[in-house]
From TrEMBL, chains A, B:
It is an enzyme of class 1 (oxidoreductase). It catalyses: L-kynurenine + NADPH + O2 + H(+) = 3-hydroxy-L-kynurenine + NADP(+) + H2O. The lineage of its organism: Bacteria, Pseudomonadati, Bacteroidota, Cytophagia, Cytophagales. PANTHER family: KYNURENINE 3-MONOOXYGENASE (PTHR46028). Its cofactor is FAD. Residues 5-323 form the FAD-binding domain. Catalyzes the hydroxylation of L-kynurenine (L-Kyn) to form 3-hydroxy-L-kynurenine (L-3OHKyn). Required for synthesis of quinolinic acid. InterPro entries: FAD-bd (IPR002938), FAD/NAD-bd_sf (IPR036188), Kynurenine_monooxygenase (IPR027545). Belongs to the aromatic-ring hydroxylase family. KMO subfamily. Transmembrane segments: none annotated. This is Kynurenine 3-monooxygenase.
Length: 450, 450
């Protein structure tokens, strides 16, 4: 085996994109996945979310590998959140400027497109290869396969094998590995709003629909077949509305009629889907170091986050882009250096987005239903319009730029403090359009200078 | 195998004490350890600390199983800290009231005493049995042994297998296990101050000796053979004085002569020991749940802490005592209930002591060398003397009572806030003895009521 043969663990979105980057660098790439080849068996994600929200960072990576135009036809732009209240009324809140959108994408087809692109560039794929052991010292990897155990050399390993990474588990058995895995109290279940009998979208397709209900929520993202994939987020147990307390069709009907009645009317298959589809957990993973000997963790394997900022895939794609740039810079014979630089630069940013994803859950399920939230967004949008270089709303920094997540986080916290003071005005609902916007910017600049 | 046969993983201090408790309950107990039998091979802890500091919680458990009198001859009381400054001067600071002490104990002999006591009560020990797999659903456990792989039924499993617990690793592979392991930047190495040529202790044996040097420290605990076991705590890397920068005898001599000269004069074997003994890592582990099916984690397996409060073993022994009381209460056929009650009650307390252990490192290596620290301790001692029911210093609550760690923590934080204000008086060094002590108590009671 050659020194420049790269072993990638995981043929998911991150692993397949990384394979493309590396093939374009002229490297030899073997991708291993424990699951069967998707092209030969029906697609089943075993409860993982089917819909992704592709935004700036993701598109930027796709553009780098020349795939933007191929992916665009699969993507549906969502220009804002459509908030559904308990009486069926809706409010639209833009994500950013008029033309700015995040893009709904189905995992299955997108993953296949990436895998095929890598294959056409010469990457080799091996399915039903479950990584059992990694011997960092001897640079060997052991797979369980349908035809028995295979042990092979692996001079360079990239672990893109997700939140339950085998490579990470192997690292954890080594000494001095800092590691945290945390399940939040909420779990999720996927449901569907199918196309109408006339074959049309049942709701506005160019929005991410949210039914925020305080401690829980339902969301819906559009699909090219004119259906919506819905995700229901509930506490697992212990609250008035939780998965534990929905045990039969009657319980289910009461919850949906009480809280999501407009959605309920569009979900003819709710009862079947609810009791057939798995209830899945939500995990946050942080660890360090990401490097052990010749191996590096990327994507969810090193920083699985909760899905509430829509950045999991985008952040993983940015990992690939940054890693690719470092390989460009330091060449194909300096993996130690490239990996060390990568983890040193990137960790602070993935910590920031993990934290933001956790915090954004409260915003999505609760704050968005507060009329003041909309005013706050409008004030920030106006600041952005008037002072585009000085005030970019946090959501926009994360979603529509490639500013480092850690910088977006710091700047966002600063702006949050200023906005809290602005919103404390009891007459803000009436006066928001007549504020002294220059003074707000001045306050922010002053706070920043301290 | 009978339903009341208990499998204990780990024949360390916690596993052997738990075996004694269970045998006294009339249960069948099998204890498995991956290491060889200590009685047949020389004692080697592979870098783990040899000296323990037994305090109230530990003694209480030993008393419950009737072992206090057997252990006492192995223990050396330490009534306070003896602080060594950089010029060889020393200051003694009492741990508590005059007769209150913590007890230095060597791990090896103590562990053997506990194992033999359990064996005499009928516990079975199996050494060189490395737990490879736990099948929670089928209640089976698989061991690697010198004579091959053994798979056996295990209706009830207690994981007392320490910071790198195999049982915990098996639980982590299950879903919804919250887990954190964190290495601190400091590591440690054990060294020795032998008895003098006259066969006497080289220093006061009734104190825990500390050489606090800000970012690092050396400590020493007495042994019955009139030697002291020293532990050097240094950052691993990146600071002026760190393990990475001590590469030869010359480096070592400079560090010891500069910072620990009085100790250095008593360490004839320093050079040999330093380069022979391993440098060991310090880990903090928190996880939840502690229960999976028929299995429960206890001691370091569920809450390994850094050693700076001297509570690791004491807390583990208290685990055993609390678990024993629950078995007493709910009987031998309600393991689910007993385990559920145990983790529900205990987690908040082990979180508190893990946190305190982390915080106490700063106190030991830094604060104790501040003259004001001594005054602070004196004021608190006086408050304790005047108002023994209202003000117990935090260290005393943790070390000399069996108050819940979480309550000690909360009360300690409250007292800390009051004391910070008392110590802010610029003339406190002169006036500490003339303070209005009643007013301090009043302030504390008021703060508590809020």
């Amino acid at each position: 085996m050659k020194k420049n043969e790269i072993t990638i663990l995981g043929a998911g979105l991150i692993g397949t994109l990384m394979a493309i980057y590396l093939k374009r660098q002229g490297l030899d790439v073997n991708v291993y996945d424990k699951r069967p080849d998707k092209r030969k068996t029906p697609y089943d994600e075993g409860g993982r979310s089917i819909n992704m929200a592709l935004s700036y960072r993701g598109w930027k990576s796709l553009e780098e590998v020349g795939l933007k135009d191929k992916v665009m036809p699969l993507a549906i732009p969502m220009y804002g959140r459509k908030i559904h209240d308990e009486h069926g009324g809706t409010t639209f809140i833009s994500y950013g400027k008029e033309e700015q959108a995040i893009y709904s994408l189905s995992r299955g087809k997108f993953n296949q497109l990436l895998a095929e692109e890598g294959e056409s560039l010469g990457a080799n794929y091996f399915f039903e290869h479950k990584c059992e052991e990694v011997d960092f010292r001897n640079q060997e990897i052991t797979f369980q396969t349908p035809s028995g155990v295979k042990k092979m050399e692996a001079p360079v390993i990239l672990g893109a094998d997700g939140a339950y990474s085998s490579l990470r588990m192997a690292m954890q058995k080594q000494i001095r590995f800092n590691y945290k895995q945390e399940y939040i109290t909420h779990e999720y279940k996927e449901l569907t709003i199918p196309a109408t009998p006339e074959g049309e979208f049942a709701m506005d397709p160019n929005a991410l629909h949210i039914w925020p209900r305080g401690k829980f929520m339902l969301i819906a993202l559009p699909n090219p077949d004119k259906s919506f994939t819905c995700t229901l987020f509930l506490p697992n147990t212990g609250t008035k509305v939780c998965f534990d307390k929905i045990n039969d069709e009657h319980d289910l009907e009461i919850v949906f009629k009480s809280y999501f009645d407009d959605a309920y009317q569009m979900m003819p298959n709710l009862k079947k889907e609810f009791f057939r589809n798995p209830t899945s957990a939500l995990i946050n993973v942080e660890c360090f170091p990401w490097v052990q000997g010749n191996s590096l963790l990327i994507g969810d394997a090193s920083h699985a986050m909760v899905p509430f900022y829509g950045q999991g895939m985008n952040c993983g794609f940015e990992d690939c882009s940054i890693l690719n740039a470092l390989i460009d810079k330091y060449g194909h014979n300096s993996w130690d250096l490239v990996f060390a630089k990568f983890q040193k630069k990137r960790k602070i940013d993935t910590d920031a987005i993990c934290q933001l994803a956790m915090e954004n859950f409260v915003e999505m399920r609760d704050s968005v239903s507060d009329p003041k939230f909309n005013i706050r967004k409008k004030i920030e949008a106006k600041l952005y319009e008037l002072y585009p270089n000085d005030w970019i709303p946090l959501y926009s920094m994360v979603t529509f730029t490639d500013m480092r997540y850690s910088e977006a986080y710091a700047q966002g916290k600063l702006q949050e403090g200023i906005m809290d003071r602005v919103m404390a005005d009891p007459l803000i609902t009436e006066n928001w359009d007549k504020l002294d916007y220059e003074d707000i910017i001045y306050k922010m600049e002053t706070a920043k200078a301290v």
